[in-house]
């Protein structure tokens, strides 16, 4: 009750000669300002969340950048380590000859395996028919 009286005094002191229409307009104007401030506060909260997310992403990127710099320095200080070494061929045989040779060996092996495999027994039905 005291708070209401304090507000009444404030309104009376700020706008001493208001009629009912002017007072309603004043209250609507205040309500509009409250709504606007509420919207601004919500937007600020969203922006704070976005800033927090961006700061976390920045920390992750800074960490990745540090790792990449260390790798770059490591490779720069030892340039031979960054090159891949190609091993020489063991034989002079071309790949076509090699592939043909292996397939003929594979088929010979498959034929020998088929010859030594035991014959499967024929299935019979429940009635004894073949």
Could you characterize the architecture of this molecule?
With 130 residues, this protein is mostly helical. 75% of the residues lie in helices and 0% in strands. The chain is built from four helices and no strands. It is elongated, with a radius of gyration of 44 Å. It starts with a helix and ends in a 14-residue tail after the last helix.
Number of helices: 4
User: Which shape, going by the Cα principal axes?
Assistant: elongated
The fraction of residues assigned to DSSP E strands is under 5%
Task: State the helicity in percent bands.
Answer: over 70%
Rounded radius of gyration (Å): 44 Å
In total, the number of strands is: 0
Secondary structure category? mainly alpha
Distance from N terminus to C terminus (CA atoms, Å) equals 105 Å
For the largest beta-sheet, the strand count, sense and barrel status come to: none
Q: Quick check: average pLDDT?
A: 74
Low-pLDDT segments = 94-99
Succession of helices and strands: HHHH
């Amino acid at each position: 009750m005291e708070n209401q009286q304090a507000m009444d005094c404030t309104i009376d002191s700020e706008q001493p000669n208001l009629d009912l229409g002017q007072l309603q307009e004043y209250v609507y104007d205040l309500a509009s300002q409250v709504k606007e401030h509420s919207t601004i506060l919500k937007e600020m909260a969203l922006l704070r969340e976005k800033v927090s997310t961006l700061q976390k992403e920045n920390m992750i990127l800074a960490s990745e950048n540090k790792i990449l710099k260390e790798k770059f320095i490591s490779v720069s200080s030892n340039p031979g380590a960054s090159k891949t070494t190609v091993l020489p061929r063991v034989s002079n045989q071309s790949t076509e000859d090699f592939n043909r040779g292996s397939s003929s060996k594979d088929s010979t092996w498959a034929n020998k395996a088929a010859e030594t495999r035991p014959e499967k027994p024929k299935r019979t039905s429940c009635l004894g028919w073949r």
